[in-house]
Design a protein that fits this description.
Layout (H helix, E strand, L loop, with lengths): L3 E4 L12 H9 L4 E8 L5 E3 L11 H4 L17 H4 L32 H14 L5 E6 L2 H6 L4 H11 L9 E5 L2 H9 L7 E5 L12 H4 L2 H8 L4 E4 L15 H7 L3 E7 L11 H11 L4 E4 L2 H11 L2
Parallel strand pairs: 1-2, 1-9, 2-4, 4-5, 5-6, 6-7, 7-8, 8-9
Antiparallel strand pairs: 2-3
The structure holds SN-glycerol-3-phosphate (G3P) and calcium ion (CA).
Length: 312
């Protein structure tokens, strides 16, 4: 089986992440799935936005001065959708205001908006029709505990939007992903979604979300537990390899032994993982060396080309 290509935040290597142009580009570049990170607005609308903060990718600090919390940050959950729709989305920036990825789209105001999940579903559905395509949705619920503390059930609210679009069915082209295993259990056992679930795996020292033992999830016992509620895992690329960064490790084989798919993140042609000198070498290591079933890529055109040339 050919591995699947998931466009990470759209074609984010070329256009500001999670904007509708980035989605269109990802579709044209042949992504099998397009990723949506979900954060809620104050009025409980699922936004396609990576951070729970707005200042990293929008002009919120200019448009709403003083609406930050005491930590200086502007939280999406403190704004209604109507307010968020007045913001202009730009390429991701550091706190200093300079671009995170220097060679990418410039940090300019193109009057791009933060899309809602519903809008993005309408766009992808439309493109699938007009381009005779079948791109799916790869939806991540961000920071469920943070939303819960704000009185919002991000899992139920996200699922409701998918249901309204007819996408909460066994054969819908959708994966649901989350770093928080308790949210995935909740989705399966209480919300009873038939959609395949992916347990994302980070590093313990990221502390994001706090309190999750990702080391334990990567053990045989952890993988066995995950197999009880999820269809697969989403490890960070370095977790596929031994300490040298290039020799394939045991994780993918162990996950496969438990019947789990492995969709790894994130291929970036302009930010190679340690140990790899070229993007070609990195893609070879991930697909042919580590033998993953899918990958998140910021550069869907380059990854499409690579997968199609593999001949699997
Ligand atoms: O969801 C897979 C990958 O996107 C996880 O990392 O931080 O880019 O959402 P992040
Ligand atoms: Ca994500």
């Amino acid at each position: 089986m050919k591995p699947i290509l998931i466009a990470h935040r759209g074609a984010s290597g070329y256009l500001p992440e999670h904007t509708l142009p980035a989605v269109v580009a990802a579709h044209v570049m042949g992504a099998d799935y397009i990723e949506q990170d979900i954060v809620l607005s104050r009025d409980a609308i699922p936004l396609v936005l990576h951070d729970i903060y707005l200042e990293t990718t929008t002009d919120v600090a200019v448009k709403f001065p003083g609406r930050n919390r005491s930590d200086g940050r502007f939280y999406a959950v403190d704004f209604d959708l109507e307010e968020i729709k007045t913001l202009s989305v730009h390429e991701r920036v550091k706190p200093s205001g300079t671009a995170v990825f220097e060679g990418r789209f410039p940090v300019v105001d193109m009057a791009l908006r933060v899309p809602t999940l519903a809008e993005e579903i309408t766009l992808i559905t439309g493109l699938n029709r007009s381009r005779h395509g079948s791109a799916g949705y790869y939806v991540e619920m961000k920071a469920p505990a943070f939303h819960w503390d704000a009185g919002l059930d991000i899992a139920a609210i996200t699922l409701e939007v998918l249901s309204q679009a007819g996408l909460n069915t066994r054969d819908a082209p959708v994966f649901l992903q989350c770093f928080d295993p308790s949210t995935l259990r909740y989705l399966k056992n209480e919300l009873r979604t038939p959609l395949p679930l992916i347990q994302l795996i980070g590093e313990n020292d990221w502390n994001d979300p706090p309190g999750i033992d990702f080391e334990a999830l990567r053990t045989d016992h952890g993988l066995q537990e995950i197999a009880g509620f999820a269809k697969g895992i989403g490890p960070w690329i370095p977790q596929l390899f031994e300490e040298d960064g290039v020799t394939p490790g045991r994780l993918v084989g162990a996950a496969h032994d438990h019947g789990l798919l492995v969709h790894t993140y994130t291929l970036r042609a302009d930010n190679l993982e340690a140990g790899f000198q070229t993007f070609e070498g990195l893609q070879t290591g991930v697909f042919s060396g580590a033998n993953v079933d899918g990958v998140f890529s910021d550069f869907p055109d380059l990854t499409r080309q690579f997968i199609d040339a593999m001949g699997r």
